[in-house]
Write a structure and sequence with these properties.
Helices cover 37% and strands 17% of the residues. By secondary structure, it is of the alpha/beta class. The protein has 2 domains: 274 residues, 3-Layer(aba) Sandwich (Carbamate kinase); 99 residues, Archaeosine Trna-guanine Transglycosylase, Chain: A, domain 4. β11 and β12 form a beta hairpin. α3 packs across α5, α4 crosses α5 and α9 runs parallel beside α10. The radius of gyration is 22 Å and the shape is globular. Bound molecules: glutamic acid. The site of glutamic acid (GLU) has 14 residues, from α4 and β4.
């Protein structure tokens, strides 16, 4: 892995709100100038750098002098619009000092869930990198916060996931998530003084025993969202580093392979092309819960999903939309493009395949599967 990091050609760097702004809500200018100069150095070494920057809402809140701890949605969106402007001013001016041009990209989850937009965006990114431009990316909060959590195809909810999707989409070699803690600990370090920093995670099984509580101490996105982001990156063949952006020279030291405090998460086997979009980027419109027999068939035998193994259908999706496939404990096994609508799937759940056409009153008798293997991504198949 060390060799891959030293030679990493394309690096996505995510700066969390706590890194971008100071405790009083103002821009952490000195810290940002230092991080930007490290980015410029990485570019001089012949690498592509893409920045995903949070901080717009926090910055806007300070400028508008909004002191209440909880803001209404529209207030947050207004803050994002004000803060984003100031953020970009700093990035543009600071990168210019290193003769580098920046571009602002404000994205919504729809830009990833809609395949055509997803493909277009990829081309734009590639062109920007060809031009030697530094893309500075944030979620388009002014239009997307409203949908948070309601539909998994409409909002990222946090910039950790956004940064992982950008890394995945662009076949990056490395994703660096900078926050205000040194990485993933065995326990919450605030409440457990003997908590130890985990230097490397080679497989996600390792994380099962770790309590990822202490959301507030880990910042807005929380450590759980960073682990989720690392999973997306990992299944796209991208290594991830979670480290503190308060550590001096962190970007250069990490990319030179020096021993730095942080948690490295190793890349797994990359999910190929269209399946990567299906399994990681598209989001999903509903959930299909399967029993143990179906789980075994999907995970170990590479089977298609048959109606007999379905025990529950959640949500209201249409045919040929994407669903999340979960076991009875709510663990997501993968995702797939489903042949039937939620209503139809409920009618055939638990039934034999031969019954599909009869139950649904379909003329052609070819219907045997609910999700065909070719339209299915099972995550475990890509773990090393
Ligand atoms: N987009 C938000 C902002 O710029 C940050 C979201 C996050 O921290 O994950 O303030």
């Amino acid at each position: 892995m060390l060799e891959n990091v030293i030679q990493a050609k394309r690096i996505v760097i995510k700066l969390g709100t706590q890194i971008v702004i100071q405790e009083d809500g103002s821009l952490a200018e000195d810290r940002l100038h230092s991080l930007i100069s490290q980015c410029a150095q990485l570019v001089c070494e012949g690498r592509n750098v893409l920045l995903v920057s949070s901080g717009a809402v926090g910055l806007g809140r300070q400028v508008l002098n909004l002191k209440e701890p909880k803001l209404a949605l529209a207030e947050k969106q207004a803050c994002a619009a004000v803060g984003q402007n100031l953020l970009m001013d700093l990035y543009r001016e600071s990168f210019e000092k290193h003769q580098l041009v920046t571009a602002q990209l404000l994205l919504t989850a729809l830009d990833f869930s809609d395949r055509q937009r997803y493909l277009n965006l990829k081309e734009t990114f590639k062109k920007l990198l060809d031009f030697g431009v530094i893309p500075v990316i944030n979620e388009n909060d002014t239009v997307s916060i409203t949908e948070i959590q309601e539909d998994k195809t409409k909002s990222f909810g946090d910039n950790d996931k956004l940064s992982a999707l950008v890394a995945s989409k662009l076949d990056a070699d490395l994703l660096i998530i900078l926050t205000n803690v040194a990485g993933i600990y065995t326990q919450n370090p605030l409440t457990h003084p003997d908590a130890a920093l985990i230097p490397i995670i080679e497989g996600f099984e390792q994380l099962k025993e770790i309590g990822l509580d202490g959301k507030s101490m880990y910042g807005r996105g929380g450590m759980a969202t960073k682990v989720e982001a690392a999973k997306i990156a990992s299944m796209s063949g991208v290594h991830t580093l979670i480290a503190s952006g308060l550590t001096e020279n962190i970007l250069l030291d990490a990319c030179q392979g020096k021993d730095i405090p942080g948690t490295w998460i190793m890349a797994q086997n990359a999910i190929p092309g269209r399946k990567r979009w299906l399994g990681l980027a598209s989001g999903y419109n509903g959930v299909v819960v399967v029993n143990d027999g179906a789980k075994q068939a999907l995970v170990s035998k590479g089977a298609s999903l048959l109606p007999i193994g379905i025990v529950d259908v959640q949500g209201d999706f249409q045919s040929r939309q994407i669903v999340s496939i979960q076991d009875e404990d709510g663990i997501e096994l993968g995702r797939g493009l489903i042949h039937f609508s939620a209503q139809e799937t409920r009618q055939i759940q638990g039934q034999q395949s031969q019954e599909i056409s009869k139950i649904l009153g379909l003329n052609d008798l070819d219907h045997e599967v609910v999700i065909h293997r070719d339209n299915l991504v099972i995550y475990q198949e890509y773990s090393v």
